[in-house]
Amino acid sequence: MSLWTDLAEVSLSITHDPVGGAPTRVLRAGNGAEHVLMLHGTSGHLEAFVRNVGAFAERFTVHAVDMLGHGYTDNPGGDLRIPRYVEHVLAYLDARGIERAHIVGESLGGWVAGRLAADHPDRVGRLVLVAPGGTVANPEVMERIRTSTRRAVETDDRALTRSRLELLMFDPANVSDELVDVRHRIYHRPAFVAGIDHLLCLQQMENRTQDLLTAEQMARIEAPTLIVWGAQNPFGDVPEAHRMQESIPGAKLEILGECGHWPQHEHAARFNDLALTFLS
User: Fold this and answer.
1) Number of structural domains, the chain?
2) Where would I find the AB hydrolase-1 domain in this sequence (predicted)?
3) CATH number for the domain harbouring residue 110
């Protein structure tokens, strides 16, 4: 299976839009009246959603975005904290003239989506939070993310990039050679290497605790919310998902078995059905 096989029958565009001083890579597909914004995780990129774009584009206008300092979107400078990610997302919506969008946020993307929904409820329709981060500061998990990412970025060894991707999966077979190639190339872009400390700043305890998505913030989320969690998520145990569900008014929770940190990829058909039913 190839990334382009997944997208072969999808009419799409990939552009680099000027957004808040940062040329931002975006994959757009579909022409629905409602918009869905897809936000990936830490050190990720829009290819995290290649198994989802086609299904979503049948009903919505889809925007899969390389977030600030990620993929092929450069960071103009400084640490990448949650308020900056939120500002970048809002700047993108404003640039496209989108008043309100549904958001599918995975990991870091879910953290950003939750904060955006809490602080700017008028801009968010519905939320699909996919193994979202940002509610706890677990030193062991933070060290695993920081160490594995830095090693893969600072060493030109495809095996380290593959290992970083395999951390996300219950079944390593979901890490294709092509996906490794895509991420390895991103990881070794000069701008990405130069900015790795700014990208990983949320894996430092002081920064993370200041930016955590608090119970008070989650209680302010008005958007109908679906949380999708992998039973074998290596970056967060199932009780974390239940606490988030209890904190967000009316939130629904789906836990997928034999699934790691990328439910939208490992169980794409099931995820697409759950998410599209919820968004519709």
Assistant:
1) 1
2) 35-268
3) 3.40.50.1820
